Structure formats: C-alpha cells, structure tokens
Amino acid sequence: MLKKKVVIIKDASQVKDEAAHDDILFWAGKEKLFTAIDELGKNFNEKKVSFINICSDISYENRVIFKPSLKMAKVFSALSEVVGEKPELTKKDKLVLNDDNGILFFKTVQQLLNLGMVADVVAKNESEKEKLISKMLSKDYKIRAKIRQLNEYILDLKEKMIDEQFDDSLSFLDRLVNRTNNVEKLLDRIVSDNILRIAIFGTKNAGKSMLVNALLGEEYVPTSMETYFPNVIRYVPSKNKQIRVEYKDKVYQFQSIGEMKEYIITKLKYGLMSNGSSNENLTIYYPSEQEKNSDTAFPSFLSRLFSIFLRKNNTDEIKYEIWDTPGSDMGGYDSFEAINRAIEQADVGIFVMDYSKYMQQSEIELLKVVKKKFDESETAKLFMIALNKIDLMLSDVSTVYSIPRLTDFIVNKLNLLGHDNVVVIPISALIFFYLQKLGEEYPNLRKTSNFYADLTKIFYAPEFEHMDRETQVYIQTLISYINSLRKLFDREKILNFEDVEKGTNFKVFKGYLLYILEKKAILEKRYSIALKIIEELLNLMKEIKKESTDLIQETFAIKKDMKEIESLLNDLHNKHEEFDSNVASGQLLRNYVESEIARLREYYLKMAAKLFEDFKIRETAEKLREFRAGLDESLKGQSAGTSKKLTLNIDRLHDELEKLLSTFYTEVETRDFYQKVKSFESDAADLLERLLEKSPEIKKIGQNSNLDSFESQSLTQKLVTIDEMIVDYSPFVKLKTIYMENKGCLSSLLLFIPNSIAYLLMKNNMVRKKENEIIQEVEQIILKKQRIFNSYLEELCMNLLENIESRKATLSQFYSTSEQNLRKLLREKNNDFAQKNCRMNLWNQIERKIKELGLERDLRTVLPNAESKKNLGISMN
Q1: What percentage of the chain reaches a pLDDT higher than 90?
Q2: What are the beta bridge partners of residue 702?
Q3: What is the C-alpha separation between 630 and 302, in angstroms, rounded?
Q4: Which DSSP string corresponds to 676-715?
Q5: Which residues fall within 8 angstroms of residue 131, CB to CB, at 6 or more apart?
C-alpha cells in the first residue's frame, strides 16, 4: 500500500483533481477551512470534495515532540510535518505539546479528527500529572502504613492527655486524626474510586437517547417522542442477566428491554406526571455480559481497554456510568437542577447538537450554561460536542457534504460565541445504531462487498413482511440513507458495510471518547485525588508547624504579660503598703482629720462672727440714719422720703464671706491630710493609666476598678457656694411696716400743731421707740443669717471629712481589688503558660514522629520539580 502524500496548500487552485482524492491536504491559507473547501468544490467535481482528506495546518511556536509507536521521538514545528512522518496516526502515537495554551491542544485534536485520526495528544503538564500519579501509586502502601503509625501515635498521645484535661490540645489532636483519616480514605479512593461518569446534554430531539443507545448497543433508552423523564437517567452495567430499574428507593426487574421500556413509557411516566416531578435520578442496570459484539458494546470494549491500563497501575477495573440528562426546552419542567447535578458528578461531558436545528438559540443558551459550569469545576473535566444527525446533510442541497467543512464551520461559529476549548465531532448516531443492529441480526452483511444490493434483497424478500417492526425500520432507513450516499458517487461506487459505517463518523467519535476515557478522564480523576492527598498531607504538616509557631508566639506573649503583671503588682503592692502605713500612722486617721477640720472650723467661725458683728454695727447705724433722714423729709413736707426703701445691703457681706471661704479652702489644701490624699490619688491614677495601656486582660482589671480620674476632682467639689446658702435673705419687712405706720401718724400731727412741737414730740417719744425697733430688727436679721452661715460651715466641714473618708475607702478598695485581680491573672497566666509548654512539647513529639517516619521526605519525592509544581499549581510553602 502506497504511503499517502502530505500536501500543504494556500490556494484552492493549487489542488488537482487526483490529489484531492488521494493526498492528505493541509490548508495553510488565510481563509477559513470551510471557505477553502467551498472553493475546492468549484474547481472540480463537487461530489468528490465530500471525500477528500483535509484539515487546517497548525504551527507550533515551541515545537512539538512526536513519539511514534515503537520509534524514536522527533521534534517538529507543524502538524503537517507530524502527519508527513506518519500519515496514519493512532492512539499509540504521542504528540507532546510544549505550550501552556489550552487552545492549541484542542486545535490539534480537532484537525486530527477531521482526518479521522485519534492520536495521543498530551499537553505540557499532563506528563507531570502522570508521573505524580505513578509515584503516588508506587508509594501508596508505604504512605498508608506511615499514616496509620502516625494515627496510632497521635491517639496514644491523646489517651495520655485525657487526665490533664487540656481541651485545646485534645481538640487539636482530634483535628490531626481527622486529617490522617482523610488521607487514608483518599489513598483508598485513588485505587478504588474507579467509576467514570459520562454525562449527555442537549435540547429536546437532539438525539441524546439514540447516542446512548449507539454507545450501549441496545435500545435501552426511550426517546423524548416516546416519553419524557424530567431528571437524569443513569445507565450502569451489571453482571446480573436481568434488567433492573431503580427509582425512589424501589427496584423493578425485567426480562427484556421491551418490557422495561413499556413500563417506563406507561406506568412510570404517568405515575410521575400525576405526582409531580422529583429530583431523584432513575437508574437502569443493564446486563453488560450479554454484549457480545465489541464494536457495539461500548462498556465491554471499554472494560477490555481499561483492564490492561489498570493492571499496570495496581488499580481496580474501571466502572462507568452514562448519565442521560433531560432536554432543557421541555415545556412544563425545570430540568436545570438535574443538569447541574449531572455536571457535578460527570468526568466527561458530551453535548449533543442537532444538525437540523442549525445552532438554534435554545442550543446556544444550554451550551453556554453547561460549558461554563464544566470550566468552573474544581477538577479538570473533559468536554466534547457531538454534532448529530449529519445524515440529513445528504439531503441539504445548500451545502457541500463534507465532514471537515461542517466541523470547521461549527467550530468557528462556536469560537465567535466564546467557546474556544471545544472539540466537535459530526456523527449520525441513528444510522450507526441501525447498522450495528442489522450487523448483529445478519452477520453476513458485514462481509459482503455490495452491502446495498444484499440489503435490498432482504427488503424485497417475502420474509420482510413477517419481520418485527424495529428491523423493518432499520432496513428501510438504511436503504434510504445509502441511496442518498450513492448519489455522491453518481451510483458508480459499490459500497460495503464499512463504507456506510464510515459515513456516520461514529467510529471516530467513539474512538475519541474511548481515548479520552482511557487516557484523560481517569488521569484527571486520579490526579485530582492525588492533589487532595498531597494537600491533606501538606495541611497536616503545616497545621502542626503553624501550631508550634503560634505556641511560641503565644508563650512569648504570655511571658511578656507575666513580666508586666509582676511589675504592676510590685508597684501596686508597694503603694498599697505605703497607703496602709500612712493611714495606720495617724496621718489619715479619721480622728486626726476630724480634729484638724474642727480647728479650722472654730477659727473661721470666729472670723465670720467678727464679720457679722462689723456688718451689724455698720448696717444699724446706716439704717437709723436713713430712717431719720426720711423722717425729717416727711416733717418738712417733702415727698421724696416716701419712696425710700429701708433694706440691708448684703452684697458687701457676700463678698467678704466668699473671701473668707476661699481662704478656708486654700488652708485646707495646705494641710498634711489633704496633701497625702492627693498624693495617693495621683499614684493610683498613674497605676490605673498603666493598667489601661496593657493587654485586654490587664486593661479589664483597670476598667473594673471603679476608680475615676482624680485629676479632674477637688476635695471641695461637692460643697455648695456661699451664694447658695445666703441668697435667700428676705427684705426688711418689719422696717418697712414701721416706716409706713409712722408716716401716717406724722401727717395727722402736722395739721394741728407747729412743726417744731410735733418734731419734739415725735423725736422724744415715738421716734425713739421706733428706732429701738429698727435696731432690734437688724440684730435679729444678722443673727439669723449668722446662724445660717455657721450651719453652712459646719455642713461644709462635715462633707469635707466624709469626702476624705470616701476617697480613702475608694483608694483602699482600688489597691486591694487591683492587687487581688492581678494576682489571680498572674496565676491564670502561669497555668496557661504551663499548658502551652505542654502542647508545644506535644507538637514537637508529633513533628519528630513525622520526620522519623519520613512522611515529608516521601511527599517531596512524589512532588515533581519546582517548574512542574508551578505548572500544576502546587505550593510547598
């Protein structure tokens, strides 16, 4: 067989008719590939364009390493060079990309699929992932054994600590045990978590169900035309020969597929409709052992492939599930909850697009939602698009029948919508499934050279009328399809079974799906578990180191607090002793302070008495003079005297009394007892300020001391002023009364006797009497006010004494309470320090045990080099 030639073209006119049919064409022109194929159709027979081998060439800036099966690796700078080296690439041929750009990976895969090839295309960090998993699996038993030893060691430490009742330490040990248990579970998972889930998405009538049927090899799946189930249908292979359906904790068993479908279409469907939708999956367990044909039986074929791969890696055989999701455009149902659930569980996603819908808005919207959730997933998930129903392209007169053209057109449209990292594979699931079912029923059809002729004979045979309805549909559909296919060859080419099968492109689709399951999905699944193991081990060691670091800082802070507490306690104790000593020595005893205040009081009472006596003499003379002057004016007939107000002038007395009190206050503040109190108040205020500047625990002691700031207070602050005591002096009511009575009497006398006689009479008799009354009235008023002042000074002195005693009590309580609380806090700090030291010793023991076991060394051995760590997103900090 001649080796196919690789031809790079930049202009459609370069291609000759023969070359278009026999060579592998790599398009390197400026136009899009689908435009170039349209141009090729204009240059020669348009029908022959349908079968040319063509794709876009890809240049690799950082070059690509090509490792063909059983040959030495080579380095190339373009995809055309790789295919030129080996025109028929298979999954055994590896292309290692040196680019971090994910788009380049998808472009390479897509162009190889356009040529009908599935090769092992590996991104830059995939080989590092493979190495990491391989190392993890090789050290699985060692790490598992060491983790168990560490777990037992921690549990032993915990048991010894129970009597000491260090709750913090015990809870921390519990967290460490949880981490070691998690590591063990993850180590179990990396070996035993062997379930791969393939989720199928798409709108109504896109052909999801037929795609599932084509993968399973049997018509298990009822289409949306037959029934609609608004949740996920899971298809799980089983060794049981019976078909089982599980839904809402109930299990139903069936002997045949037809019996199962009938039940789902009738009873289950209508039961669901009447009870409302449910968020529970429906699971179908199908007998995988009944699948004989490896081409048809997707799971059996997959198991065979994986068994080789898994034996090499000491892991269990892979199990797989297909999750068929409801269409998002089914009226009356919200299917997005089921779709989201499938996305969370899926390892591989297949989005089924309908060729006949030509990317309608409903498909675009659903694709946007599904693709976005796949991209945002915590673990890398694989995603592909199956463009279904391409058999309808044969009847589409508006376009050239070319799978590469159709693929490139759809890919470019998806790129414009923002979907760059996608692989699109056109398929006809229905035609492929019908072919496989007929191939099972009529094995000779697979071997015949003229498939169409032999199929037509079956159709016209008398037995056709007696066949089951499904087989009749298979034959009629395939005859119609082959007739359309033959038109591309002007009915010249004789088509065999393989030619017809190739037109469905389903083998390329299934080959790529099996490839990503075998090479990619299981790698990503195990890699995500390996990363979690590494993360748990790193967190385990980091938590211990962090706890040790935190404990060092905490013990340092505790020691610092203890020193501050001891310093404060020492100063507070000294001041307390000094305070008690002064009180005990008599300098602040109540009887001493009371006698001192009493002496001051007696002295200032005498001073006040002299002030009042002087005021009485002065005011009596003044009032007599005013009275006589007024009387003279009245006798002389002058009216001015009638407006005279006979009152005492006490303003001057107020001023003199306030000066006296001011002197009293000043003298109080110079006394020893006052200075001592102020001194201890100042010391206490300083100590309080120091308390409030310290840690929150010490600050709290200061805040609870009930000690106000003494700087803003005076011993005499609570005493009222002199004005508050004597401002209520009443007017001279009696003096006014005397004056008014005399005025009336004098006026009567003036009418009958001469002025001189009347004056003498008044002066010698009545006036003398009235003047005596004025003198007595002034004396009584002054005496009354003097008593008020004396009482005020007595109260002032009493308040002063109580004020000093109250402050002494406050100071005593401050010293005692603060000293007591500081001592209590110091004891607590000592206990805390002892606990922290105990825990630090414990963590040191665990750290030594980890080093002794060599866990950290094992972990660093598993991890790749620094550059690879960066690529994989692993940090050892």
Answers
A1: 19
A2: none
A3: 137
A4: HHHHHHHHHHHHHHHHHTS-HHHHHHHHTS----GGG--T
A5: 864
The gap between the terminal CA atoms of the chain, to the nearest Å, is: 58
pLDDT 10s digits, 97-132: 987 667 888 999 999 999 999 999 988 778 788 888
Distance CA 343, CA 200 (A): 10
Query: Per the structure block, which two tokens stand in for 118?
Result: 């599935």
Other CB atoms within a 10 A radius of the CB of residue 636 amount to 11
| CB of 37 closer than 8 Å to CB of 405 | yes
337: closest CA among 378, 377, 279, 283?
Answer: 279
Strand 348-354 and strand 319-324: the pairing is unpaired
Tokens representing 55 are 């794709």
- What is the SS3 assignment for 234? strand
Reduce the DSSP state of residue 384 to 3 states and report it.
Answer: strand
Say which residue the tokens 């999905």 belong to.
521
Classified as helix, coil or strand, 760 is: helix
Which of the 8 DSSP states describes residue 763? I
Rg of the chain over all Cα atoms, to the nearest angstrom:
54
Please state, in angstroms and rounded to a whole number, the distance separating the CA atoms of residues 747 and 5.
157
pTM for this predicted structure = 0.67
**pLDDT averaged over the chain?**
79
Helix 855-862 and helix 126-138: axis angle, to 10°?
150
Measured distance CA(178)–CA(283) in Å, rounded: 34
What one-character DSSP code corresponds to residue 822?
H
**Which one is predicted more confidently, 737 or 525?**
525
Token pair 């035993």: residue: 192
Q: Which of 736, 802, 748 is nearest to 774 (CA)?
A: 736
Tokens representing 68? 């063909």
Closest CA to 332 of 204, 177, 191, 174: 204
Structural tokens at position 739: 């004056």
Sheet holding 24-27, edge to edge: 6-9, 24-27, 53-56
At CA 69, angle to CA 65 and CA 73, rounded to 5? 30
Question: Residues 825, 701: contact at Cβ < 8 Å?
Answer: yes
What is the rounded distance in angstroms from the CA atom of residue 412 to the CA atom of residue 114? 14
Q: What torsion, rounded to 10 degrees, do the Cα atoms 174, 177, 179, 183 define? A: -160
Bridge-partner residues for 683, per DSSP? none
Q: In which residue are the tokens 């065979």 written?
A: 304
